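so ive been stuck on this for like two days lol. basically i have the seq below and the ligand is zinc ion, smiles is in there too. i just want the complex predicted, nothing fancy, no docking runs or whatever. if the output looks off dont worry ill sanity check it later, just need somthing to start from for the group meeting slides
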Amino acid sequence: MLVIWKRISFLLAGIVVCGWVAAPSRAQVGQPSPGMGIPDNGSLVGDTSPLAREAQNWLVDLIKINTTNPPGNEQVAAKYIADVLTKEGITPELLDVAPGRSAVVARLRSSVVADPSRALLLVAHMDVVGVDRSKWSVDPFGAVIKDGYLYGRGSLDDKSMLAANLAAFIALKRGNVHINRDVIFLATTDEEQFGDASLRMLIAKYWDKFAAGFALNEGGRVMMKNGKVQYIGVQVAEKVSVNIAVTATGKAGHASRPTKDNAVVHLAAAVDKIGNYSAPVHLTSIVRRYFEGLAGVEDDETAKWLRVVDTPDRGEHAQRVLADMNPSWNSMMRDTIAPTILQAGVRVNVIPSEAKAMLNVRLLPGDTIDVLVNELNKLVNDPQVKLQVLPEGGLAAPNSSMENEFYNLITKVSAREYGGAPVLPYMSTGATDSAQLRLHNVQAYGVSPFAVTEEDESHVHGDDERLPLASFAKGVDLITRITAEFSVTR
Ligand SMILES: [Zn+2]
């Protein structure tokens, strides 16, 4: 493996340098840039396919390193990545956050004095969620290639992005180019549990090591439909996760003498009401823009509803239709509440005095949990049922700008790379590390660069998670080009 890498990287170094060095002279003489059908500045980076092949090897190795969180054990992956960087002549640093858990950071400097406000951070997490091995058709940590897919936990979330970031970062180093801002590579720990080793902790302990004004992270999407790219979503905001404990109390006793005062019955009634509740629609500016753009690429029937979603006369009906069509759209329009855990009773013949449920709430940015809890209390209307907001919820972060130079560049390069497909601002319903970054004044953007179908996406956090291999090289190419075009001086 090692020997092969060295040989490929040597070849690649030549190719990439050629690409970069040759580009300005071609531009000066006004010739169209060759290869890949990329107009204007596309020739800044040469052919990235050898780089993508290397990145695929890194991805395979990273999938085989089991970083299931808990416990994470990301230090093994961090050391692997540090080795890859060291071989490139880059000096990485391990940032220890907990026993067996280390992030890894590396920096390419643009000048002696760093200007964090200009720096670009390439960030991805190393940990993955657990697996139910019995439901997988292959070894989840075997990195099996089958039918054009690379199977494995983390193949989409988020080791593919990790490998792509690593590739983009290494390409800059190999290119030996003059960069106009520091570029920082960061592989993080504990993203999936958001616990004591998460980015929040890394920021608290090590912010100076990776402080940046701009970041590329997971959270966006390149949506494939009917064999072509339908649109590219760039994540500029995300919903906020908050958990609520619902506790019902009642009279304990022998199950042979039941009364109406049963905690289980009170809880069940409350969960039924909450589960069937729909919070009011609140269309944020991002979701409006997203729906507008989507209307241009969806089928006529769907587009018709998307176009009137915000109108006074037909809006309400359209919102209902769209919410029924797609759970993601429903979640983009309102706060959502999902009952996820039920707990009651220890013996089948004993009525318990207490029954508990857990609700996972996803708030729209700008909405507050107190307002929602008030509504739910009115709805449940039962003095024997109490709702308690649990600490350690997500934090509401400002949106990233849809106006700045970095957002414009991401839009331009993504559209060019994906044949002119529309690029839409996107609010993810799930949480990413970008909220933490945005809270620290980082303009963070979610660009998950690999073209996937809804079906592919549905395996994330589920069984048989898999990456279409044809999409991988293109994704590596996109991240490399965005990184280079934003940071290389021409
Ligand atoms: Zn992730």
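The pocket of zinc ion is lined by residues 125, 157-158, 191, 218 (CB under 6 Å). The two ends are 35 Å apart (CA to CA).
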